[in-house]
Amino acid sequence: MRRDSGSPAGTWRRRLVALVLGAVATLALPPIGIVPALAVAFSGLLYLARDVRRLVPAFALGWWFGLGHFTSGLYWIANAFTVDGDRFIWFIPFAALGLPAILAIYSGMALAATTALRLEGVPRVLAFALLWTTAEWLRGHLFTGFPWNLAAYAWAEVPEILQSVSVLGAWGLTLLTVLVASLPAAWRSRYARRAIALGICLMALGWGYGHWRLTRADEAGGTGVRLRLVQASVPQNLKWELDQRVATLVKYLTLTREPAATPPALIVWPETAVPFLVEAEPEVLAAMGAAAPIGGAIITGTIRLREREGARAFTNGLVAVGPDAKVAAAYDKAHLVPFGEYTPLRWLLGWIPQLPGESMVPGSGLASLIVPGAPKAGALICYEVAFPGHVTDRDDRPQWLLNLTNDAWYGRSAGPYQHFAIARMRAVEEGLPLVRSAQNGISAVVDAYGRVVSSLGLDEVGVVDAELPAALPPTPYVRWREAPLALLMLALAILVFRLSHPRKSLSN
């Protein structure tokens, strides 16, 4: 049996290479999208760990890979703490390195668990893909979850492959992607050519299914409902300044009233679009009502003041304001951002001065809204759209997804592009069109196949006028959720066992 070898200097060189390979994996994600980079990254990681037999060194190697991947992929989060730099700039190292260091634990566990199985060749690659996907699933669920930048999102600009998530979901596509990307590491081993051929066939099957599905896409049609998304691109550092509040509202109202070839039935503003407690400001409600379309409404994100157990509490919500200047529908964000909208473990961390995190409370859960002038909508605020299988009320399926967000916090970085790719994948999974209104971009109308109908890019000021696309019947993923993924993982696990324990001949 081979043993871990090399001097301490050699060990650190290997970890540095793992760090670089993790960053290489990020090249496959939006906005760059070099998908073959995943093959370099994952095959390279398995090659680096080929002679590692102890769990701690294996975990360390996987951790360094994860550190490189999450640092390069999530660097933009630190931008949010520069907006109010006098108060929160001290938190940047924790955001830029602390969060990636925590998330890298999952990749470390995946490689350590693979090493613990003592497999070689193709069985090792198959086991790694299974364990990596399991670790990613845990990352998306434990401690409120953060399923950002899954390997599946590398296919954001390949619509044929993207359609496979209508059956397998993002987790299933992640499994297949990591499996195929890792196979070159077993090139010279037994069964390698068959395994690589199988991997290519699986991706070809996924592409063929997607191509067939897209040939039927034009049959979906539209709803006849005209939408207008308003993107004012107000800089985040000016948005809440007292002397800018009225000007911000006027900017949204002016864009809302711009002439349209076909008058819209519904106007959509982004998350916390105007710096007011809208429901507590009669003059703001009156101004919005005067601009709202007859028979329709203006939907805007807003901070809402609520009564919870006899005490005042704030939520990050949205309201639909009709021409009568009254709130016709409302929703409160249920999945809050740690250290953004609330501070976890405040009882333990309360001694730290100026902790980031507003004092917000979550809403009661995902809800389908009856919005004037449009079919029933599934409301999602900001990164609530990032959670596969958890974006709609399963007992009351909506006809479209409404995602309000504010990516102005992150400037001209990879963050908004990643967020948009994530949102588009939810549309394909659910078979529902997506309407995304973002402060500073990317605002877009996306059909149920994940195709962009119309959009505005980063920092653009203007409106998106488009027809709301039609919903599709519930996809296999909606009906079965993770069952196909579980069956696929079971089949791969059986294959790993059979390949690593070949039957002995009867003569023996």
Radius of gyration based on Cα positions = 24 Å
Q: Which fold name fills CATH's third level, the topology of the largest domain?
A: Nitrilase/N-carbamoyl-D-aminoacid amidohydrolase
For the record, the CATH class of the largest domain is: Alpha Beta
Number of separate helices: 16
Shape: globular
Q: How much beta, percentage-wise?
A: 15-25%
Q: Looking across the biggest beta sheet, what order are the strands in?
A: 5-4-3-2-1-12
DSSP E strands, number: 12
In sequence order, what are the helices and strands, one letter per element?
A: HHHHHHHHHEHHEHEEEHEEEHEEEEHH
Domains (count): 2
Return the CATH architecture of the largest domain.
4-Layer Sandwich
Q: Please identify which CATH superfamily of the largest domain we are dealing with.
A: Carbon-nitrogen hydrolase
Biggest beta-sheet profile: 6 strands, mixed
Mean pLDDT: 91
Uncertain runs are 1-5
What is the helix fraction of residues, given as a range? 40-55%
Which structural class fits the helix and strand makeup? alpha/beta
How far is it from the N-terminal to the C-terminal residue, by CA? 25 Å
Write the layout of secondary structure elements.
Elements: H1 8-26, H2 37-48, H3 55-73, H4 85-88, H5 92-116, H6 121-139, H7 159-162, H8 165-182, H9 192-215, E1 222-231, H10 236-239, H11 245-256, E2 266-268, H12 282-291, E3 297-308, E4 311-321, E5 327-332, H13 346-349, E6 368-369, E7 377-381, E8 400-406, H14 414-430, E9 434-439, E10 443-446, E11 452-456, E12 462-469, H15 476-480, H16 483-500
